[in-house]
What does this fold into?
Amino acid sequence: MKEPEKKPTKKQFGFSIWYILIGAFALLSIHAYLFGPVATENISYSEFKMLIKEGKVETCHITSSLIRGTLREEDVSQKKRTFVTARVEDPELVKELEAKGIKYSGEYESPWVQTFLLTWIFPIAIFFLIWRFVLKKVGPTGGIMSIGKSKGRLYAQEDLKFTFNDVAGIDEAKEELQEVVEFLKTPHKFTSLGGRIPKGVLLVGAPGTGKTLLAKAVAGEAGVPFFNISGSEFVEMFVGVGAARVRDLFSQADQKAPCIIFIDELDALGKTRGINPIGGHDEREQTLNQLLVEMDGFESNKGVIIMSATNRPEILDPALLRAGRFDRQIVVDRPDLNGREAILLIHVKGVKLDKNVDLKSIAAMTPGFVGADLANIVNEAALLAARFDKKTVCMSEFEEAIERIMAGLEKKKRLINKQEKEIVAHHECGHALVASSLPTTDKVKKISIIPRGIAALGYTLQLPTEDRYMMTKAELIDRISVLLGGRAAEELIFNEVSTGAQNDLEKATDIARRMVKFYGMSKLGLVTFEHNGKPTFLGLDMGLKREYSEETAREIDLEVKSIIDETLTKTKEILRKKKNILIKLAKRLMEKEVIEAEELKKFLSSEDEKETDESKNIK
Ligand code: ADP
Ligand code: MG
Ligand code: ZN
It folds into this structure.
């Protein structure tokens, strides 16, 4: 048998005005039922008793909280006929009513309808309305609901057109990155031999030296997708969002392997943890932790390489630099003379140059300029030429462009004038000479007067590593001596000191203080004066408690001072003996801007020979 066909329900009940009207009507009837006729007068209980005594009341209806009543018709004057009054505990009332022959009735009135409406339906209705409102405003696909996802901006850039040919003047960095490119191209070649591929590569260098460009060039050379995100983009207002974004980034990268994740401005995210004086886990810290977790969990052999750039490596959390994370650090230097020429050559490609333009001399005019500055010069010169309606860009435009940009840079204290250059040259040579005369110090790799933000000896980049403080007392003293060498040389040659040595002095003092306070290397004996709990390489001693008296503090200060003073005297003595060499070396440095280790070694040994020859002659 066939089932009777169901009638299709045609009407879809939409949200219409009728619901509101029906609801309102229902509410009104409930209200009317609860509170009775509208034409009711509120009277006081004493008035009510008066009315009873006067015999004006006809009927009474007593509920648990109210008494409603009607007056005799003949007694209604200006007052309304029905009244209501609050019920007062009054045992005599019934007797009085009976005495006057008033009809009365009682009722046990449960207020559940009222209570239910007020405490349940009403709030639920309000919540429902708010919810609908919020949903409509932000929608399930936009606004608040999508915070955890990476911003739409996060995408893999494919077919990057940059290659290593677009990068010049930073050949050492390029060479080191060549290996990364090789790996991304042919991962099997490396993994089949059981080698461990670097997971993280950190590019360190001043702003504008081409770090971002270099990372893109690596992706372009290898022909892999490139995820570009800036450290500051991870730091969000809402706690947990940054961490979610990191997870999202890594899962996206996982699907695109082999690829490169590039985190620009890592310092915004990777500042040393635990120096937040207010305490607690802040958002940045959570995000950083998530990044560390993701990096550890990543199989590097899958072919995802995490690159990152910073111009402030010294503030990075040491955990980021540990093995298996950003364990490969590549210094992106300011370009030297030849490097600047090469960079200029890249950027003038699309520019019509006059025959008189000599890139070599432009490069010579721009010590301390980084790649971005040089690109800027070329652009500025082209604009100037266009303004003067010239057919080609001449040397004069370049000169003006250099002047303009230099003025801007001088404001930022990134360039040095002639006299400063002389002082800096002697200062750096002072460091180098002291370092090469002392037995325990590290070899000088490079002296440079190309101004840079980070390093002291021109080149030695001081990244925090765990074993840096495993040193003997003699080594520490020698290290202080090298640091003081710059200042001592300035004093020796110019009979004057400059502010340029501040960073050196800070570091020297720090070492001396550590010797006294932590390592028991002073007259105060084998006592440590503070707990050395955290990596305190930045003097971040905030969490440390002082456990000694004012007097001891004074003694410590004196001890530190005497270490510094003694070492300074020794250092000056070393330099005084080698004053001639110092002057010659500084002169050469001013000409060349950079002196490499090999050259320095040759120079020093030939000078030593001359010295010994001279002393022989005197004999
Ligand atoms: P950073 O990331 O180190 O601050 P960028 O990579 O953003 O510097 O460099 C900005 C621009 O400067 C680049 O797009 C490029 O045009 C130019 N530039 C910087 N360094 C170089 C370089 N070594 N070779 C060629 N161009 C460079
Ligand atoms: Mg950059
Ligand atoms: Zn110095």
